[in-house]
Amino acid sequence: MIRIYVPRDSAARSVGADEVATAIEAGLRDRGVDAEVVRNGSRGLLWLEPLVEVETPAGRVGYGPVSVSDVKGLLDGGLAEGAEQFLSLGLVDEMEWLASQQRVTFARVGVIDPLDLDDYRGHGGLRGLERAVAIPAEEIVADVLASGLRGRGGAGFPAGIKWRTVLEAEGDVKYVCCNADEGDSGTFADRMLMEGDPFTLLEGMAIAGLATGASQGLIYVRSEYPDAIATLRTAIDIARVDGWLGPDVMGSGRAFDIRVVEGAGSYVCGEETAMLESLEGKRGMVRPKPPIPALRGLFGKPTLVNNVLTLAAVPGIIADGAAAYQALGMERSRGTQVFQLAGNIARGGIVELAFGVTLGELVEGYGGGTRSGRPLRAVQVGGPLGAYFPADTLDVPMDYEALAAAGGLLGHGGIVAFDDTVDMAAQARFAMEFCAVESCGKCTPCRVGSTRGVEVIDKITAGVERERNLVLLEDLCTTMTDGSLCAMGGLTPLPVRSALAHFPEDFHRATEVRP
Amino acid sequence: MSALRPSWSADHAVIVVRELPLVERLILPALQRIQHTFGWVPDESVDLIAAELNVSRAEVVGVLTYYHDLRQSPPPDVHVQVCVAEACQSVGSRELVSNLEAAYGVPLGQRVDGVEFAAVYCLGDCALGPAAMVNGRLLGRCDVERIRDAVASAQEVRA
Question: Which chain B residues are within 8 Å of A50, Cβ to Cβ?
């Protein structure tokens, strides 16, 4: 039977994938064609969504972007046979944009049916967990350590060290908490993985449970991701029935189960201690560290907190060995990073590559410049707390240390492009405004400083005592950086200062007003 | 949505809280379940949750007022969330918001004819912005026209 793939990813659905799938199914029925429409994840070529694929003897042939009005013509033109016609993309695996990537964590996303366990197994799934149940916990931890894997949530802490700390911690109960509160604008990789290959995350968490002695897993997913929540819950049910989650993981005699917890709209709950508070049903207020969550985390018990992409990298590392993963990357950033091209970008989507690719290669090469066709002016890397880079400084290599040296941060790998119509003073103001809205309120520099920051930037752009207010803003940024417990207040000055440093002209548009 | 929901009853609310699984007998899940059932969290639920979970009233109010999702007044018929974060800003979300405000005659955060517009920070559709969500349905590459159509079909579903 012919298999036709139409993504169920929510980005694809946001531009009509459901309607296209329905139209294709109806068209096939009318024509009496025996074909199955599979709702896969997205391949990550988001500008081509809805991207329809047809299985042929030569491989999967793509068409995109497909709208409902194209469906009849495509079917008439031989879509079911994979015929070359309008909207043809050729063999998807051979498209330069995709073929040149190093898909490791995203190897199965878009390829398989996300909730078909046989499809998952057929593409190498569960090999990691099979090995993990057969080896001692110390050996799993040693592999994660040797792989060089670092936390993909943003901080880049070596995962193996965290895992070892939880393993060695004393506790009658231990937890594995997956942070899926992907709140950074410009990031969507966690969502796409959870919707497109949820078993990988569950397998990674089960391995983490075996490695640390935890029996309970929780995935904290933001409420803005309803599709991801639904997909994960179904995947967990399927894994339980199959016997690799629950009281006896793969017959090992060890228990590990997972439940999904839905957030309630709070950016700061992406900070690990705020997330733990929220998981305990409280206000998402940041906790001081120490104690670190690895020793005293959820309900005071030893807790492993990792991001979706960190945990999703683990099955591959355990299955194929640490060396293969460690061989990728540069310096102290090993393996691959899932970059997300977003904003005003011609070819937005997922680019997974070994660390070390430059920002320019991503934005100009893969991204193809701006979507508007206007000159690129600025790129924000690493979400709302990341720095703005001017268009002429894009030769910076994407790795944790190199970006830090260039005054930025990698964060969760989100890259947002802006064309020359952007007002960088407005972007700096927004950084403060966002902090004021989302601050948990624990630290005064963050809670109060962000509101004062908005006011000071307004005075600067209005030309009111500009030099004095620029000094005041700088002082405020220092106070926020030094006096906040977490990255919310501590890093909000980063986009503000980078906008000021690289685009001072935007702050000087109004004529100076003398008091 | 409200048409399909039961109207508020304290007896019903107690059952909702008591039916929480053991691991979810916590303040936030209790509030979420109340909102899921009735569409919002009426003031009366505060005492009720405090009593059922053996916590103080202040703790419940603290959580209720902390999270953006939790509502202390009845929900609109149609909830339009417009992303105003950076990735959508880069492709015109500021213009989209002002065009919407002009088209519907209300600022973000307010309601007209049962339609409420709210700012949201990121819906995870950052390569296909500006993004919006209308009663839980995600829309990419939004303009006023596209949102209008989605609002109209959401209203049709209710009618």
Answer: none
Burial of B132 (0-12, 13-18, 19+ CB in 10 A): buried
CB atoms within 10 A of CB A108: 22
Distance CA A187, CA A495 (A): 16
Please tell me the distance in Å from B82's CA to the nearest CA on chain A: 12
Say if A230 is an interface residue toward chain B (CB within 8 Å): no
Give the contacts of A20 (CB within 8 A, at least 6 positions apart).
A6, A50, A52, A66, A67, A68, A71
Beta bridge partners, A392, equal: none
Interface of B with A in 99-138 (CB under 8 A): 120-129, 131, 133, 136, 138
Q: B7: helix, coil or strand? A: coil
Give the single-character DSSP code of B134: E
Question: Is B87 in contact with A342 (Cβ distance < 8 A)?
Answer: yes
A282 inside 8 A of chain B by CB: yes
Distance from CA of B159 to the nearest CA of A (A): 22
C-alpha A28: how far from its chain's center? 36
Determine the topology of domain B78-158 in CATH. Answer: Glutaredoxin (3.40.30)
Per-residue pLDDT of chain A (515 residues; tens, 9 = 90+): 899 999 999 999 999 999 999 999 999 999 999 999 999 999 999 999 999 999 999 999 999 999 999 999 999 999 999 999 999 999 999 999 999 999 999 999 999 999 999 999 999 999 999 999 999 999 999 999 999 999 999 889 999 999 999 999 999 999 999 999 999 999 999 999 999 999 999 999 999 999 999 999 999 999 999 999 999 999 999 999 999 999 999 999 999 999 999 999 999 999 999 999 999 999 999 999 999 999 999 999 999 999 999 999 999 999 999 999 999 998 899 999 999 999 999 999 999 999 999 999 999 999 999 999 999 999 999 999 999 999 999 999 999 999 999 999 999 999 999 999 999 999 999 999 999 999 999 999 999 999 999 999 999 999 999 999 999 999 999 999 999 999 999 999 999 999 999 999 999 998 888 76
Q: Which residues of A201-225 are buried (b: 16+ CB within 10 A; e: fewer)?
A: bbbbbbbbbbbbbbbbbbbbbbbbb
Q: How many residues does chain A have?
A: 515
Strand residues in A364-444 grouped as ranges (E)? 376-381, 388-390, 414-419
A184 burial (CB, 10 Å; 0-12 / 13-18 / 19+) is buried
CA distances in angstroms from A214 to A163, A221, A232, A255, A412, listed in the order given? 11, 20, 20, 8, 26
Yes or no, beta carbons of A14 and B139 under 8 Å apart: yes
**Chain A residue with minimum CA distance to B35:** A264
Q: Which residues of A touch B131 (CB under 8 A)?
A: 14
Q: CB–CB of A401/A333 below 8 Å?
A: yes
Question: A374, A368, A375, A308: which is closest to A341 by C-alpha?
Answer: A368
Whether A286 and A292 have beta carbons less than 8 Å apart is answered as: no
Q: Does A338 touch chain B (CB under 8 A)?
A: no
d(C-alpha A385, C-alpha A382), whole Å: 7
A446 Cβ neighbours under 8 A, 6+ residues apart: A435, A439, A440, A480, A484, A488, A489, A490, A492
Domain segments of chain B as ranges:
10-66, 78-158
| Confidence check on the interface: ipTM exceeds 0.90, yes or no | yes
Size of interface A-B (CB pairs under 8 A): 144
Cβ-in-10-Å burial (0-12, 13-18, 19+) of A158 comes to: middle
Phi, psi of A473 (to 5 degrees): -65, -40
